[in-house]
Amino acid sequence: MVCAWVAEVWSRESELKRVVHEPAYVLHHYDWSESSVIVEAFTRTHGRVALVAKGAKRPSSNFRPVLLPLQPLSLSWGGDAEIRTLKGAEWGGGQVMPTGDALLSGYYANELLMRLLAREDAHPRLFDAYAQLVHVLASEDAEPLVAAALRAFELLLLRETGHLPALGAQTLTFAPLDAEAPYRLVAEGGLRAAHADDACWLSGAHWRALAQALDDAAPFSTALQAVARWPGEARGQLRQQLRELLHYHCGIGTLRTRQLMMDIQALS
Predict the structure, then answer these.
(1) Nearest 5 degrees, angle CA 52-CA 54-CA 58?
(2) Is 221 exposed, middle or buried (0-12, 13-18, 19+ CB in 10 A)?
(3) What distance in Å separates the CA atoms of residue 113 and residue 154, rounded to the nearest whole number?
(4) What is the pLDDT of residues 197-206, one digit of tens each?
């Protein structure tokens, strides 16, 4: 009687720990054994999770053709260990794999998520922004929008992880921004008035536009549209400041995917 009751309780607890049909994307995977891999997945309601896909390297595995990056997936898993066991994976459909520079941009976004997100820390709004970014990267006319889409995603990632100061005022003094004055975003000081020797800055009007976009009901789309309308010089200034902030919080000088992009550009 006692054994049967314990088995029933254990079975119920196992069912409660099972997750089914969770929207997800594969960020990275690496070998776990001769036939299995560990999958780092970004999910909507469970954040970044590590899953072991047993037998995924076998030619006959149902996981093998599905567990691809930059593709919408529906994942199911179970277990209560740090690395859960993948039970099912289905392709969400609706888009093709990005190619060329768009593909490298997607890998860049994945590396940022791997470095800045703690495991099992849910960020549903960031997940939605990432899904929109992937959609832009996979579209046929992606090239003109890729850079603006990456800036919008970087801003939302920094905000969701608590690394982006409020962009509507100076960080240390809370003084409002002058639309025509220059301001610079720095890792340890937030948003401040640009110094005379600062080569990289944006006007107060630009920073206020970004603050309004991020507070919009559709922040990714609004920020993308705002940045896409800027002249090339302003877009470059934003990219440089965000890159410095991201590298600071990632704890590295250059991201691997960024270095790969630069190497490819040098070869071409």
Answers:
(1) 135
(2) middle
(3) 10
(4) 999 999 999 9
Q: What is the pLDDT of residue 262?
A: 60
Contact 105/85 with Cβ under 8 angstroms?
A: no
Inform me whether the pLDDT recorded for 173 exceeds 90: yes
> Rounded CA gap, 29 and 8, in Å?
35
Q: Would you state the structure tokens that stand for residue 84, as one six-digit string?
A: 């859960």
The pTM of the full predicted model, rounded to 2 decimals, is 0.90
DSSP code for 239: H
Strands 47-53 and 84-91: parallel
Helix intervals (H) in 54-198: 100-116, 124-138, 143-160
Alpha-carbon gap, residue 157 to 164, rounded angstroms: 9
CA distances from 230 to 154, 171, 204, 215 (A): 17, 24, 14, 19
